[in-house]
Amino acid sequence: MTEASDQMKDLSVSEPAEKKEKDKKDKKEPKEPKQKQKPVQKPKPQQKKKEGAALIGIDVSKSVDLAEWYQQVITKGQMISYYDVAGCYILEPASYAIWEAIKAWFDSQIKVRGKVRNAYFPIFISADNLEREKEHVEGFAAEVAWVTKGGKSDLEKPVAVRPTSETAMYPYFAKKIQSHRDLPLKLNQWNNVVRWEFKHPMPFIRSREFLWQEGHTAHLTKKEAAAEVLQILDWYSDVYQELLAVPVVKGTKTENEKFPGADYTTTIEGFIPATGRGIQAATSHCLGQHFSKMFNIIVEDPTTKEGSETKHIHVWQNSWGLTTRSIGVMILTHGDDRGLIIPPRVAEIQVVIIPVGITAKTTPEAREQLYSEVTWIAEVLRSVDIRVETDFREAYSPGWKFNDWELKGIPLRIEFGPKDSEKHVVTTSRRDRDNKDEARGETAISDLKEAIPALLESIQSDMFKKADAAYREHRVTLTDWKDFVPTLNGKNVVLVPHCEGGKCEDEIKEMSARKDDGDNTAVDTKAPAMGAKSLCIPFEQPEGITPGETKCVNPNCKDFAKSWVLFGRSY
Amino acid sequence: MTEASDQMKDLSVSEPAEKKEKDKKDKKEPKEPKQKQKPVQKPKPQQKKKEGAALIGIDVSKSVDLAEWYQQVITKGQMISYYDVAGCYILEPASYAIWEAIKAWFDSQIKVRGKVRNAYFPIFISADNLEREKEHVEGFAAEVAWVTKGGKSDLEKPVAVRPTSETAMYPYFAKKIQSHRDLPLKLNQWNNVVRWEFKHPMPFIRSREFLWQEGHTAHLTKKEAAAEVLQILDWYSDVYQELLAVPVVKGTKTENEKFPGADYTTTIEGFIPATGRGIQAATSHCLGQHFSKMFNIIVEDPTTKEGSETKHIHVWQNSWGLTTRSIGVMILTHGDDRGLIIPPRVAEIQVVIIPVGITAKTTPEAREQLYSEVTWIAEVLRSVDIRVETDFREAYSPGWKFNDWELKGIPLRIEFGPKDSEKHVVTTSRRDRDNKDEARGETAISDLKEAIPALLESIQSDMFKKADAAYREHRVTLTDWKDFVPTLNGKNVVLVPHCEGGKCEDEIKEMSARKDDGDNTAVDTKAPAMGAKSLCIPFEQPEGITPGETKCVNPNCKDFAKSWVLFGRSY
């Protein structure tokens, strides 16, 4: 279910940048890029080595080699540490804190406003249950991890490690839902799931184990289920846009791309400007009565009239999921050549304060005085709920520290030295601005409690605006097929009139793929590229489609367009 | 590590009450009690069947058949639902909410006061890493679940499902800790772990998958590590005593019972009055340098003098864990023949308000009026952060509802009818009091905001006092061996002078066991009983042991007593 199941569909497509790392001796096991073998480059005390600041940073440009940049930024930025089981990664504290921020916000929405309750279902699913619904199991069979041994004994019946929990949860639904009075039943769990994929892994974006929430609800009516699907999608959109500052497009999946067994799938679709590829961000499915029929989840129709035969209703079900992939999308969207840029609302540390202006002539007393002022500023900011860190490390120069915290993406730096102290100000530096002059500012000490939260909010909204502008610029509306592939190649996704036909979609995918030319060393967009698939039918439809008149964009298709559909190469 | 590893040590001991359910055809797979096959008894609308209220409740007394009582109270009280993989259970929303309350409190302590950061390490551990430390792997080898297949392919290298994360985490520690400046490193994760046990499972208390937190920290000095061990133990004690209203005894494990590889293990030990057995509640270990030596986690000694040879220090490590077992201990401690009793501080619903006094003569207007007053009372209570539920279900009588919410353990019931409305009061009923008159009270509407929170706090502290008194009463100090077994048989744990010798402990265990008399149908304490093991050396030591003079309680032991040691049969 949810986006991760769609991740799987992409797996036949190789990342050009990853291809060059591919170990041809072992096709079964995904290999981490070789760079992981290098020990993480650690800041060295200044006095030991006069290393340039650049050495601790990213040594490749995001625009030149995105794959290498990504690997460096997640490891040097301390988001991810590699691990000795392929396709699995360690979520370090700084990235886990982002997940906790997402969790806290979303959990509160679904509990307080959605009346959803959290629960926990076992990680193991019996083969009997997993295989109960053929269509479902077929979607996952190739990637299910099986536990076959306990200690040294073979298990009589192997158990599956959950790839998703429909088959773990719906027998419980059938047991608990005995009457329409038991509806709606709304459960959610925050857990880990495993999909033993054999293709190229990518930290956050595609891994064998990932964290997510999976919501599963049952309703008496289709109308009620449908309303919830959209409510959840709104909250997913808020997680991306309001917390992660990542723009998304809301829409419905085409028949080709919907969750198998669902009535329909709604989705939010993101975009990675650096590659021009779309990325599924989160999905909210209306499952209709498909699963309730298979799992026999029925209630008596409350509208049955006395004396007449009792009618039964199969409940209407939804499922919806949001994963740690979201963190990867955030990193790919905002990061730059200096490292990560974390939006303030989800940053574990929002502000770092660095004492500056200490020289060989500074007396110990003056230094102590400055440090205590820095500590006081931190306390002032904490009193208005800002997450602050102070950096008093003696072994490092201010410049080294600036680079170090920029690499980690801390949204705002405050510098404070004797001159600032005299002027009763702090010097600020925004991480999101490239231009040094635009990044820097000055805030009066007396204004800290109002000005710094406001500045953080500006950073948050400016980050979104910048990313949103990039997405809008690269979401190109076109109607003529001859523009389709060139526009894709220009790192865009395209909005085109389409018939919504499945075969036509397949044809477009085929026609827009660029075949392997045998040169696997290419890392730019001249490399072989996957075909474009439909990302969604956006809820927001432009004008311009006249039923029975506007043609489908595919020149080989005889049908008229039903709607504007977003197509793109994608993750 | 932590208590769960000690759970395993108990597994050779059969629960008498569970024995009768044992399926002798299949010794490998633990079987759930047969009762699980019965569909959960659901409240039936009153008009359909004139069932007595008792039918929805527990139909066995806690004092007569604890195992059957426990099974009924966790399923009918909607804490646990059985599942089709043996030894795995569904944590229903009401129990998961308790876990969330524990998590919120403990997480805040370790983050804010302990400066611990959360992270997430993969669920899979390579065989290479798992087997790196022989002593460690030997402790877990028999219960490790192995994934050997992905889809239809056999994995080249099977991977272990984590039984605990030392071997997943410490290679990362070795990588991240390069200098004393990187210390202390304090990480924690909230996750699921799996121990594929082949013995009798018991929901919450012993299951194949359970939820816990595992903290892993590294320090420069032994002193710093030792201080943290005790700080964590204090917080564990607070979780039990302040949140779950469950008394515990703090102490140190004997050499026999400590975590293998640890310098020492500190523990909090609980007590189940109904069986007279001790239960390990949570443990905080000082691992010393044992693991850092195996995983090569070293730093340069910061006290090395310039010019002299650099000395290296192996870091000092701790690990500490608290599991969902805590919920089971809480249920076993407080529950009664009417069902669960949840302490207010962790209850998902603290107060339920039930409209009463509606008769056939009540006009629809009067009923609406009453309902709106009930809704208003709920809002008043919510405004002071009380978690309130209102029960307007039409199909059930007030009496039925009383029983239903008592079964679920809601700490306080408010009844509100036309007479209460006239008097401007609400009628209260405390779940923790057996006696109806003692349970009931009246609160003026005008006092709600102060009186109800205060009443909930009284319930919380009275629940603790009652449980604490029971534990104190059954913690019997004795010095004469002839009293040892009879005192155990009287459902007590015993505090005895002991030499702290391992062999002597084994002998006591042997001497205090009651052998199987072949009658497996017995369910009370006359059944075969395990021997007593040492639970802990309590921090709080009574007077009375004179070194070189006081004898060890074991008559066959020639040594003098070193301390008062708590012994007991245990879970």
Query: Helix count of chain A?
Result: 17
Quickly give the structural class of chain A. Answer: alpha+beta
Q: Mean pLDDT of chain A, nearest integer?
A: 89
In total, the number of domains of chain A comes to 3
Count of β-strands of chain A: 23
Oligomer: homodimer
Explained architecture:
2 copies of one chain form a homodimer. Chain A has 571 residues and is α+β, with helices and mostly antiparallel strands. Chain A folds into 3 domains: 97-333, 2-Layer Sandwich (BirA Bifunctional Protein, domain 2), CATH 3.30.930; 351-472, Rossmann fold (3-Layer(aba) Sandwich); 475-568, 2-Layer Sandwich (Translation Initiation Factor IF3). Chain A is 33% helix and 23% strand. Chain A is built from 17 helices and 23 strands. Chain A is globular, with a radius of gyration of 26 Å. Chain A starts with a helix and ends with a strand. Residues 1-28, 34-54 and 517-525 of chain A have low confidence and may be disordered. β5 of chain A pairs antiparallel with β5 (145-150) of chain B, so a sheet runs across the interface. Chains A, B: Belongs to the class-II aminoacyl-tRNA synthetase family. Chains A, B: It catalyses: tRNA(Pro) + L-proline + ATP = L-prolyl-tRNA(Pro) + AMP + diphosphate.
TL;DR of this structure?
With 571 residues, the first copy, chain A, is α+β, with helices and mostly antiparallel strands. Chain A is 33% helix and 23% strand.
